[in-house]
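Appendix C: a fully annotated inverse folding record. The material below is reproduced so that readers can follow the format used throughout the book. The structure is listed first as tokens, followed by the designed sequence.
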């Protein structure tokens, strides 16, 4: 029954957060207020009854914390790695006559959690096994970590922080420039957990899965690791998926896990076999490197022999030209593959790859195609002397430990295509219908050669209509879309320039700080830029270096000649009213603003801040139905926070 209640708490937390996301971030309603309030009350009652409160629960408000650097702490017990095998027979021999737990070996970042008096007290990363980094504020915003649990003794447990493949793909889908996308969930997760700003962590949907209970004094686990796992579930934790096995059932269980790999949304790089008998496992002791109560299993990757047809060289926005092996298609782990990244020139030389070579290929962790071995080694093929896109002479340069092929031409179309794609993206100039493929065609046909040319296509409409895939109507629509987008805002322009480190939020902060004066921004010193909230030394240096480049300044001047930058709103009255520095929450239906996002932008432009939940730090709740019995109104009344209508808010703005 308790487990059912814990599951219901998680279900309600997810459902209410989904409704809140739709309501506040996407300006759409997926459930009536009455239903939301009823579910909220049910969740609050269950939390009070069970003592389980999940991270992100609508009944809680976890403040984001910004720190200058992560403090370090020595682990009470060294965190050792696991011995490994790729042989199922070795697993069977290792288990012997014992019962074991077979689980995923998750591919993320190991974190140690400590709870005291039922509350999350501390979170520390594995680090080097001896010393880790304290990431407590970030752990508090993981999607599924309980902030409060029923057990009130000191609990220490270990688990893996991971980002699911589905969330990883959504995050990358929101990044229009391919080279700026994250390479894999593990790297994204490691960077997210170790953020200095927990607000960034919260956006990455990090999840925690317990895999080891270190200590929970006064609790009888019946000498069973499985009992520990189930006890942790009852405390509200998600536990790594596992199956109980014996020597006879172990091979079949490994096969079952292999069948689940492709559908597993959690990154994993193998399996872990753990002795269920706690006392017996601990009696085995440990070596200098490995504990003896657990062993890791790495998949013996399925390999197929095929023939290398060619090396394709793929230019990128950064100037790197990356080798990709194209080979005769083969079936691997249930899918057909015909290409694999070779990563750099050094690896290509080491494998001595040449067209016609017989190679063996596999999927790393049963997912990513890789070359295992070159059986004939006729190469290496010579990297191209000229860039395959712009024809400029290429260079082989040393990048840390590896040699890479590089196109030094700043005007290479490959670089320009990616820059143009960012410039016209939704959060930048937002030109409807101008995809990367369209930009590539426009550049190839000589219609555009600079960013400003996008807004000078009126007299080239006929030529656009003649391009394959276009016609008179689509050409006219494209030109009209560009003309519409030429009326823009300074934050959109700053983001669209592609300055390293300048995202949407930083672009707004810089624009606001300098009063939306582009001349002040383009001439700002590093010291000036470091005064902007959220801009540190490294970012300030990058921004100043960007504007120190004469060609970039010339490009900006040309853009300003074809764009109309909307002036900043007059916020003088708002400043006098004290909106600057105040925190607002917006709820209910709006009449004077198009949506909540528009109202939030107005508040931010006046120097205020908008959050999603009412807390003691909230200054105003905006709600046209001031007498509403919604949870936000109730909370505001409990805390004595003024509830104002849109009209009253507009009066504040002056």
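Designed amino acids, in order:
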């Amino acid at each position: 029954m308790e487990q059912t209640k814990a599951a219901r708490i998680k279900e309600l937390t997810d459902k209410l957060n989904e409704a809140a996301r739709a309501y506040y971030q996407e300006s759409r309603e997926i459930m009536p207020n009455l239903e939301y309030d009823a579910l909220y009350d049910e969740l609050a009652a269950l939390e009070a009854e069970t003592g389980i409160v999940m991270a992100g629960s609508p009944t809680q408000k976890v403040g984001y914390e910004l720190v200058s650097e992560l403090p370090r702490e020595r682990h009470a017990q060294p965190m050792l790695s696991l011995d490994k095998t790729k042989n199922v027979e070795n697993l069977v021999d290792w288990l012997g006559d014992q019962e074991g737990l077979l689980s995923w070996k998750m591919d993320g970042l190991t974190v140690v959690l400590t709870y005291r008096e039922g509350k999350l007290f501390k979170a520390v990363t594995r680090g080097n096994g001896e010393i880790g980094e304290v990431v407590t504020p970030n752990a508090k915003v993981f999607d599924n970590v309980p902030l409060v649990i029923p057990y009130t003794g000191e609990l220490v447990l270990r688990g893996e922080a991971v980002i699911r493949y589905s969330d990883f793909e959504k995050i990358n889908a929101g990044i229009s420039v391919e080279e700026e996308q994250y390479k894999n969930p593990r790297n994204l997760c490691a960077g997210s957990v170790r953020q200095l700003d927990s607000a960034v962590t919260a956006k990455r949907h990090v999840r925690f899965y317990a895999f080891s209970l270190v200590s929970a004094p006064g609790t009888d686990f019946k000498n069973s690791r499985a009992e520990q796992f189930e006890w942790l579930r009852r405390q509200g934790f998600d536990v790594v998926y596992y199956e109980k096995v014996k020597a006879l059932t172990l091979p079949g269980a490994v096969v079952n896990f292999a069948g689940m790999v492709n559908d597993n949304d959690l990154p994993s790089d193998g399996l872990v076999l753990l002795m269920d008998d706690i006392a017996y496992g601990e009696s085995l002791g440990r070596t200098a490197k490995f504990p003896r109560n657990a062993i890791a299993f790495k998949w013996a990757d399925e390999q197929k022999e095929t023939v290398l047809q060619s090396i394709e060289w793929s230019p990128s926005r950064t100037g790197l030209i990356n080798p990709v092996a194209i080979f005769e298609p083969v079936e691997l782990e249930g899918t057909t593959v015909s290409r694999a990244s070779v990563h750099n020139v050094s690896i290509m030389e080491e494998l001595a790859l040449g067209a016609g070579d017989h190679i063996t290929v596999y999927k790393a962790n049963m997912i990513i195609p890789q070359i295992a071995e070159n059986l004939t080694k006729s190469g290496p093929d010579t990297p191209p002397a000229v860039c395959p896109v712009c024809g400029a002479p290429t260079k082989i340069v040393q990048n840390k430990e590896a040699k890479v092929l590089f196109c030094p031409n700043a005007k290479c179309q490959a670089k320009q295509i990616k820059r143009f794609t960012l410039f016209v993206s939704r959060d930048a100039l937002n030109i409807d219908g101008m995809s990367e493929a369209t930009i590539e065609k426009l550049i190839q046909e000589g219609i555009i050669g600079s960013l400003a040319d996008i807004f000078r296509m009126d007299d080239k409409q006929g030529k656009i209509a003649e391009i394959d895939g276009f016609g008179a109507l689509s050409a006219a629509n494209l030109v009209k879309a560009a003309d519409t987008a030429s009326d823009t805002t300074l934050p959109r322009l700053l983001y669209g320039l592609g300055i390293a480190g300048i995202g949407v939020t930083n672009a707004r902060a810089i624009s606001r700080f300098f009063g939306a004066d582009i001349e002040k921004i383009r001439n700002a010193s590093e010291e000036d830029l470091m005064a902007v909230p959220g801009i540190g030394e490294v970012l300030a240096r990058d921004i100043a270096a960007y504007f120190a480049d004469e060609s970039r300044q010339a490009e900006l001047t040309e853009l300003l000649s074809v764009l109309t930058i909307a002036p900043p709103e007059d916020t003088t009255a708002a400043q006098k009213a004290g909106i600057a520095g105040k925190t607002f929450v917006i709820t209910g239906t709006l009449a004077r603003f198009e949506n909540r996002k528009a109202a939030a932008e107005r508040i931010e432009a006046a120097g205020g801040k908008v959050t999603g939940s009412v807390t003691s730090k909230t200054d105003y709740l905006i709600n046209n139905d001031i007498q509403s019995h919604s949870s936000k109104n109730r909370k505001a009344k409990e805390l004595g926070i003024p509830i104002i209508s849109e009209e009253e808010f507009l009066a504040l703005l002056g």
